[in-house]
Write a structure and sequence with these properties.
The chain is an alpha+beta fold. The chain has helices at about 5-10, 30-45, 55-95, and strands at about 100-105, 110, 120-125, 130-135, 140-150, 155-160, 165-175, 180, 185-195, 205, 210-215, 220. Strands 1, 3, 6, 9, 10, 11 and 12 form a seven-stranded antiparallel sheet that branches. Strands 2, 4, 5, 7 and 8 form a five-stranded antiparallel sheet that branches.
Amino acid sequence: MSAISGFANNVNTTNDSTIAKNGTDNGTTGAEGLSTMFLELLVAQISHQNPLDPMEGTQYVSQLAEFANVESLQSLKIDSGKNLALQSSQQALQATALIGTQVDVAAETIVLEQAGQVKGALNLGVEADSIELRLYNAEGKLMQQQTLPYSGIGTLRFAFDEQAAGGYYVQADAYINGQPNPLTTLLSGEVERVSVGSNKDDIILQVNGLGNHALLDTNQLAFGGNS
């Protein structure tokens, strides 16, 4: 296997995103603007009507009803915006609680800052004869190979022996009818930092050795809890 390069690019442990406020405009100005505009139009309409052919009262009632509908829709929009802002804030609080917790993210490369294990999981959607895992260092040298005991469709967890500090690459294959089928590896790491943007899609987890990952892309909490 060729030497593995680009660990600095593939595993970026810094985060330049800024923390933005979660608050949103409550829309009060928009609602007041609609009321003022309607009253101005109504006064102008009354002031400039033909005195010989004045508008009937039912026309004014109809206009008031239409305005009431518009105002109700505006209020509904404001309430929906507040609910979305509240949900985003709650999700941000939940994300910050992950700091110090082990999570699984879809990744093949990892950088160990100190000696430790490379561990993670595989999600199997079909039955296979066997599962083979290989661990390479940054120079492409095979460090360890293991065959997992197959337990059917579902999640299989794995852990390689302790390795020295440095960059590593994991490959996994499911053998079906003697043919290897590449699998997506989920590597485990500890959440070091959480960056919160303006909405739930901007919540980024900085995972030790694995770089930055969106909260929505985090597969699951790693078994075993905190390390």
